[in-house]
Write a structure and sequence with these properties.
Largest sheet: 7 strands, mixed
Strand order of the largest sheet: 3-9-8-7-6-4-5
Pfam families: Cys_Met_Meta_PP (PF01053)
InterPro entries: Cys/Met-Metab_PyrdxlP-dep_enz (IPR000277), PyrdxlP-dep_Trfase (IPR015424), PyrdxlP-dep_Trfase_major (IPR015421), PyrdxlP-dep_Trfase_small (IPR015422)
Helix content: 25-40%
Order of helices and strands: EHEHEHEHEEHEHEEHHHEHEHEEHEH
CATH architecture of the largest domain: 3-Layer(aba) Sandwich
Radius of gyration: 21 Å
GO molecular function: carbon-sulfur lyase activity; pyridoxal phosphate binding
Structural class: alpha/beta
Protein name: Cystathionine gamma-lyase
Strand content: 15-25%
CATH class of the largest domain: Alpha Beta
Number of helices: 13
CATH superfamily of the largest domain: Type I PLP-dependent aspartate aminotransferase-like (Major domain)
Number of domains: 2
Number of strands: 14
Cofactor: pyridoxal 5'-phosphate
Length: 392
């Protein structure tokens, strides 16, 4: 009988991504023989004599948390990763670790509403210069020699703009800036930012990585271990460590990430095509449709366009809300990436903190709805949408 050594599973070089997602980073031992990483709930650990980096206090780390971090690093093709209690804890800790008063941060106007609010209000209040004038590839024009950090999303929220991340990474490197990519919408199945020159990648793990709408969490990865050490220390100081139970759910969810995302890619494209031909729909936003402005970039960079489709209802904001209230299979709430399909009204939900004039400039209209495709039957989802649209 094979003896399983105590410790974390390091993937073999020839393993494909699906195998790494399941086995990479798992904590296993030869005494109990469990193949699933345990939930280490101990807050304190016996002080590791002679090793200041061992487990001591759970605000620093634990074996469960380290297992997730190793899994994320393997899948994102990074050298190290850091886990957090939420995606916003990850993003804020990453930026706080890099920026000081007077530094310049370049981002886009079409990022997640809470990210936008945190950067413009919180970081701006600390004396950090936040340039958020650009949308999509126009961010290239905002990067200059004074730029310290560039922050973009692989697929923006909610209009699904895909910036040319490889070009942005090149320009950022030329001026000595660091590119951070929020890869939540794309997932590592559809895109690997670090392979295209990004300095670091971040996820709201509550979404596709965990995948079941039952846990909060965030993760980041980078090839610069000095940076991940600094981010890990910021996490210790700010207290953004995830609970081990949270981490267990994310680890479990990542094991099915590949099959879920492949299915959601396919379903979302089918629904996008259906909506684009519906008489009650004015416009569909999905980067794998040829009429989307990011279609050429998406085809060049992405393996798939993800599970989110946004569309504008013919009518006003009240008509859009009426459609949202009429669906029966699809759930009305403000998240995405889970096995249940979710519909959201960005103007009053995810982006309500974004000023009206900024929303209008971005094209986030009152009649816009965002659909996160789950794992239900595509036919059931299409019938649910059709029934709701026909009711207005």
């Amino acid at each position: 009988m094979e003896v399983i050594p105590v410790g974390f599973v390091e993937p073999e070089e020839e393993w494909e991504e699906e195998t790494k997602l399941i086995h990479g980073g798992e904590y296993r031992d030869d005494q109990v023989g469990s193949i699933v990483t345990p939930i280490f709930v101990s807050v304190i650990y016996r002080y590791p004599e002679g090793n200041i980096y061992g487990y001591k206090y759970s605000r620093n780390s634990s074996p469960t948390i380290e297992a997730l971090e190793k899994k994320v690093a393997y899948v994102e093709k990074g050298k190290d990763a850091v886990a957090f209690s939420s995606g916003m804890a990850a993003i804020s800790s990453m930026l706080i670790s890099m920026l000081r008063p007077g530094d310049k941060l370049v981002t886009t106007r079409d990022i997640y509403g809470t990210s936008y609010e945190m950067m413009t209000k919180l970081l701006g209040g600390f004396g950090i210069k936040v340039d958020e004038k650009a949308i999509g590839e126009k961010v290239l024009e905002r990067i200059d020699k004074n730029t310290k950090v560039v922050f973009v999303e692989t697929i923006s929220n909610p209009l699904l703009i895909v910036p040319p991340i490889d070009e942005i990474a090149k320009v950022a490197e030329e001026v000595g800036a660091k590119l951070i990519v929020d890869n939540t919408f794309a997932t590592p199945i559809n895109f690997l930012p670090l392979e295209k020159g990004a300095y670091a990648v971040v996820h709201s793990a509550s979404k596709y990585l965990a995948g079941h709408n039952d846990v909060l969490g965030g993760v980041m990865a980078s090839n610069d271990t000095n940076y991940t050490i600094a981010v890990r220390n910021t996490r210790r100081l700010l207290g953004g460590i995830p609970d081990p139970q949270q981490v267990y759910f994310i680890i479990r969810g990542m094991k099915t990430l590949h099959v879920r995302v492949e299915r959601q890619n396919k379903t979302a494209l089918e629904i996008a095509k259906f909506l684009s031909e519906h008489p009650k729909v004015e416009k569909v936003h999905y980067p794998c449709l040829p009429d989307h402005p990011s279609y050429p970039i998406a085809k060049r960079l992405l393996k798939g366009c993800g599970g989110v489709v946004s569309f504008e209802v013919k009518g006003n904001g009240m008509d859009a809300i009426a459609v949202m209230k009429k669906v029966r299979v699809i759930q009305r709430t403000a998240s995405l990436g889970g096995v249940e399909s979710i519909i959201t009204h960005p103007a009053t939900m995810t982006h309500h903190t974004v000023p009206d004039d900024v929303r209008r400039e971005l094209g986030i209209k009152d009649n816009l709805l965002r659909l996160s495709v789950g794992l239900e039957s595509v036919q059931d989802l299409i019938e649910d949408l059709d029934r709701a649209l026909k009711a207005i």
